[in-house]
């Protein structure tokens, strides 16, 4: 019986991969600079540059690495994510010997949120003969990945968001994206003993399809009922939606929206006296949201992230030191900013763990090195590791390699985030 139930869950997840492209919008807080993690922003922490270690500059021939990120467009523009990736590369060149002694030469190209920019970036990377493409946050992955796959160039990212990314065997991820977010929230709900959870999400056919084919089966597998109440895009007063969501007296809410949608829901909850915990992504704790709704609105918010950039552990300190040293103009270093950093530093660590990297760095040698990566420190991982020798996320028909299945979770008391704990998203699929 249990095996049949797990099999149904896996089939549901596989069937819904085709609609997981909405993950980019939800995990990135849609477009724009929703890159603050509220009052616990890493800019408020003292930075100790000694954690950078001893210098070991790269002296070998340069190796070209593509950097693809949402920047330069009118609707989508988050250059700070790419700046985080470049900062990690600069740190590697000065302190880690680059890639096996080779200096990393960044070939940066902006995803402007349209097919034309994606095509231009694909051509730029192919013509430059990059050894890999490291991704910050893409908006048009489905337009560029087929070209990258055709050229057999490795695609390295912190978090998958598009169907083509899941389907490319040459893609590697250091987190599990929107699929993992849903799974980790289901596991967390079970751990808390919650029996009913309601999601308030942006009114979107893709989101509805994903919830029906993935979200509800995952939560049901954890013994939790998941309901859904749509919130029309641009809603300023979410009172009717919050009223509908709380009628069944759920133990908690999930909010899947951009910053404006989160603000509308938080404000309505305060007005209506709804006090349920609310599981969110980083868009909901963007500084403008925190400023607008205050302590009452943010209290009991449970934030899910792919890493912990604000803690006192060594990896968080290293992140802040690297950003201070190599990207000092980036004012807010929380939220989605760390995605590029995590992609680049994870990539560097995976390659430098293989002694063969000291030779020619090509798409072929990059792929081989990444497949050997095992038990390496996860950037901002608070002691967690990543392994790419086998996928850590057990959905058989996902062809990409997911090197880490953990999500980092913190609960706000007022506007202050508590310590981070880890939740294993893959537990939702294990029999």
Automatic annotation (TrEMBL):
It comes from the Bacteria. Residues 62-389 form the Leucine-binding protein domain. Keywords: Signal. The keyword Cell division does not apply. Gene3D superfamilies: 3.40.50.2300. Residues 1-28 form the signal peptide. Belongs to the leucine-binding protein family. This is Amino acid/amide ABC transporter substrate-binding protein, HAAT family. It comes from Cryptosporangium aurantiacum.
């Amino acid at each position: 019986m249990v095996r049949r139930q797990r099999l149904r869950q896996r089939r549901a997840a596989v069937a819904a991969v085709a609609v997981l492209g909405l993950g980019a919008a939800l995990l990135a807080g849609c477009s724009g600079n929703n890159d603050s993690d509220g009052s616990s922003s890493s800019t408020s922490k003292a930075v100790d540059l000694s954690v950078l270690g001893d210098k070991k500059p790269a002296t070998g021939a340069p190796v070209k690495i593509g950097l693809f990120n949402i920047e330069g467009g009118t609707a989508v523009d988050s250059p700070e994510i790419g700046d985080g990736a470049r900062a990690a590369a600069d740190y590697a060149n000065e302190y880690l010997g680059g890639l096996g002694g080779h200096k990393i030469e960044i070939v940066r190209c902006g995803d402007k949120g349209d097919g034309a920019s994606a095509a231009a970036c694909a051509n730029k990377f192919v013509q430059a003969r990059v050894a890999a493409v490291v991704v910050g946050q893409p908006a048009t992955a489905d337009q560029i990945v087929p070209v990258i796959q055709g050229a057999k160039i490795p695609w390295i990212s912190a978090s998958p968001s598009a169907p083509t990314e899941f389907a490319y065997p040459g893609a590697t991820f250091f987190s599990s994206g929107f699929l993992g977010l849903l799974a980790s929230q289901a596991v967390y709900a079970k751990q808390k003993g919650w029996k009913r959870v309601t999601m308030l999400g942006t009114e979107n056919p893709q989101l509805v399809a994903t919830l029906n084919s993935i979200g509800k089966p995952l939560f049901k597998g954890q013994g939790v009922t998941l309901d859904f109440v749509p919130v029309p895009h641009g809603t300023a007063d979410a009172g009717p939606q919050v009223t509908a969501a709380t009628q069944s007296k759920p133990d908690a809410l999930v909010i899947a929206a951009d910053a404006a949608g989160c603000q509308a829901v938080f404000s309505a909850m305060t007005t209506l006296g709804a006090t349920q915990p609310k599981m969110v992504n980083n868009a909901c704790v963007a500084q403008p949201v925190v400023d607008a709704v205050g302590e009452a609105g943010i209290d009991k918010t449970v934030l899910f992230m792919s890493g912990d950039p604000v803690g006192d552990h060594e990896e968080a300190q290293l992140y802040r030191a690297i950003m201070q040293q190599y990207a000092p103009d980036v004012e807010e270093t929380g939220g989605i900013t760390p995605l590029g950093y995590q992609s680049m530093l994870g990539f560097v660590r995976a390659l430098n763990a293989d002694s063969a990297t000291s030779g020619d760095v090509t798409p072929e040698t990059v792929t081989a090195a990444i497949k050997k990566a095992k038990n390496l420190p996860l950037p901002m991982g608070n002691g967690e590791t990543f392994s790419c020798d086998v996928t850590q996320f057990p959905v058989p028909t996902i062809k990409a390699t997911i090197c880490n299945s953990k999500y980092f979770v913190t609960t706000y008391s007022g506007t202050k985030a508590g310590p981070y704990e880890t939740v294993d998203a893959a537990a939702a699929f294990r029999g």
